[in-house]
């Protein structure tokens, strides 16, 4: 009986593959870098990286080095880690051929020193701060950063593989201004003799909606997992890849108790949202630690499974629609789900 009440995130490989195909078609000739941070947005890295590699994804975005190492154990594809790491992690990344995103002089010197120690070559993606002020070389510090990296290139211990930045996506005008700074930085690097193989600036929304901002590579997470932008339109050819189900644990007059709650990562603020039962949609009355109370329906019985959120196939909300109710984003709903929710990957 205990097993029955474990909540399950059912994940569709086919839907994931279809989203990747739709995204790649949409952004071509820009190439996809599939972002896998937060355990592939709550879905689990291992199967997702293997599946993506099998469908021909050649770039992965890992956030940090430990995540990059998990991906490296599954694929020889290019893997990009942009969180600043300590020396030990940076050394491991160099050994494993993981590309590093570099946004400060201190970190640049540290990874070059690591490559020199190992008598190896570190693959660098230099980050220009285009206005977000979240890590990255300020334009006035750019020439020096490029010069330091170029000197290491000349010594054969570094390679400037990429130039990159991150957009605020607050307004089109700001993103346009950021792009102008980005273009300037690429030009300055090339003038200094750098020959970056890739340039990457945009994430899901700008890559999809603003083709003029796409560079040779696009770092995309959310849309590949079928997570729309909050308050954003539907995306042709993509769909949520998972649905969260929970089982009925108790039936009382007027209310049904489900075996899922805030301990599983369901926000208690979801009261009033509707879940899909075999008899149609019913309102959430209350979310507690280990359980959720829902309006009753005829024929409700212990062990029956209902859908908390999913693809919309049974009228249920998707993660983004739930997120909109509580003023957050869809990835937040998925990444909050704890390991107490069993992940089951189906075809
Ligand atoms: C999370 C992240 C992305 C992907 O963003 P999505 O909106 O999920 O596509 C891209 N680049 C960086 C630096 C990120 O942190």
UniProtKB/TrEMBL annotation:
Main enzyme class: isomerase
Every Alanine racemase N-terminal domain range: 11-228
Residue stretches spanning the membrane = none
Q: EC annotation? A: 5.1.1.1
Q: Which residues carry this modification: N6-(pyridoxal phosphate)lysine?
A: 37
Name the keywords, alphabetized.
Isomerase, Pyridoxal phosphate
Q: Which GO terms describe its biological process?
A: D-alanine biosynthetic process; peptidoglycan biosynthetic process
Q: Which cofactor does it need?
A: pyridoxal 5'-phosphate
Q: Which InterPro entries match?
A: Ala_racemase, Ala_racemase/Decarboxylase_C, Ala_racemase_N, Ala_racemase_pyridoxalP-BS, PLP-binding_barrel
Question: Could you give one GO CC term from the UniProt record?
Answer: cytosol
Q: Which GO terms describe its molecular function?
A: alanine racemase activity; pyridoxal phosphate binding
Say if the entry is tagged with keyword Hydrolase: no
What SUPFAM superfamilies does this protein's entry cite? Alanine racemase C-terminal domain-like (SSF50621), PLP-binding barrel (SSF51419)
Coiled coil ranges: none
Q: Which Pfam families does its entry note?
A: Ala_racemase_N
Looking at the keywords, is Protease present?
no
**PANTHER family per UniProt:** ALANINE RACEMASE, ALANINE RACEMASE, CATABOLIC-RELATED
Entry protein name: Alanine racemase
């Amino acid at each position: 009986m205990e097993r029955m009440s474990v909540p399950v995130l059912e994940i569709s490989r086919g839907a994931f593959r279809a989203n990747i195909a739709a995204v790649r078609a949409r952004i071509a000739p820009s190439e996809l870098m599939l972002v896998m941070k937060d355990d592939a947005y709550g879905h689990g890295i291992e199967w997702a990286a293997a599946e993506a590699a099998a469908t021909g994804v050649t770039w992965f975005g890992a956030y940090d080095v430990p995540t990059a190492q998990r991906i490296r154990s599954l694929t020889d594809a290019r893997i990009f880690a942009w969180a600043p790491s300590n020396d030990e992690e940076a050394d491991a990344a160099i050994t494993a051929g993981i590309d590093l995103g570099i946004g400060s002089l201190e970190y640049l010197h540290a990874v070059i020193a690591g490559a020199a120690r190992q008598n190896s070559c570190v693959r660098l993606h230099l980050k220009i701060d285009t206005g977000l002020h979240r890590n990255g070389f300020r334009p006035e510090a750019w020439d020096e950063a490029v010069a330091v990296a170029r000197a290491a290139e000349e010594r054969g211990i570094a390679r400037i593989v990429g130039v990159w930045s991150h957009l605020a996506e607050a307004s089109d005008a700001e993103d346009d201004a950021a792009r102008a700074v980005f273009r300037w930085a690429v030009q300055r690097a090339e003038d200094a003799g750098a020959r970056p193989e890739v340039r990457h600036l945009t994430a899901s929304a700008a890559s999809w909606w603003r083709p003029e901002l796409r560079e040779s590579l696009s770092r995309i997470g959310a849309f590949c997992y079928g997570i729309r932008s909050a308050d954003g339109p539907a995306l042709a050819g993509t769909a949520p890849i998972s649905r969260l189900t929970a089982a009925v644990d108790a039936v009382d007059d007027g209310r049904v108790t489900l075996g899922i709650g805030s301990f599983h990562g369901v926000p208690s603020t979801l009261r009033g949202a509707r879940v899909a039962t075999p008899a149609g949609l019913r309102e959430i009355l209350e979310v507690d630690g280990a359980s959720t109370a829902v309006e009753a329906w005829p024929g409700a019985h212990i062990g029956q499974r209902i859908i908390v959120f999913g693809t919309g196939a049974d009228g249920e909300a998707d993660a983004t629609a739930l997120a909109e109710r509580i003023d957050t984003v869809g990835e937040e709903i998925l990444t909050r789900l704890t390991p107490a929710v069993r992940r089951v990957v189906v075809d």
